Model the fold of this input.
Amino acid sequence: MAKTLNRNEYVREGKNVESALRNWPVQIKLAPFSAPYYKNANLLIAADCTAYSYGSFHDDFIAGKTVLIGCPKLDAVNYADKLREIIKGNDIKSITLVKMEVPCCKGLEIALRRAIEESGKDIALSVITISISGEIINE
Done:
């Protein structure tokens, strides 16, 4: 069931940090095609491994965004079709893709670019690549 998580402004203080996540579910394969949290959304699409590789993931990427995650190597879903329908049917303002430097993550980028093109919408896309050692290697 799609849920909007009630989060105040994300603030990081000390060890007990509140999650910046604002929507559920987050897995692309489970995400609904339509939900209130897509309205005027800045969408973050992230490869599963990125949140574990990049230490400041919540601070730098999740805060203020609607999040979808997935792994094209492990998930049995056509990402291009699923993302196209989400983009086409909702008012998405921008999309940020955070992926790993590994070859399988290229599939997520290819699917997303195809989804945007096939949606017929002109949406800004930012692609950020994280190294296996946890550093941003391009923006």
About this structure: The domain at 24-138 is CATH 3.40.50 (Rossmann fold). Residues 26 and 65 are 12 Å apart (CA to CA).
